[in-house]
Amino acid sequence: MKKVVPRILTSRVKALTQTLKEVRHSELSTWLSTALELHDYQCNWPDPDMVLSNYRNEEETAKDIVLLIGELVRHVEKLKARVRWGSNALKGLRNLGK
């Protein structure tokens, strides 16, 4: 069986966020917005004036990265019982949780 990884263009993340809010998954929409801000940071780097990025420095960025990964691990843990996981995926999840 062929495995598929869902992907979405960054230009469509805002619409996905809005849809998640409509179906009462607003906690995920908050984290998607954070992921989008981190993506902007990746393109524009720290911006002390906050014109091109919502992050003034690397410390602010690192804090959101850690929070986002923690939230991702929490949601994946919830799905763990409902999805068949390969050994590589389980190993990666354990490493993320460290």
UniProtKB/TrEMBL annotation:
Pfam families: PaREP1. It comes from the Archaea. This is PaREP1 domain containing protein. It comes from Vulcanisaeta moutnovskia (strain 768-28).
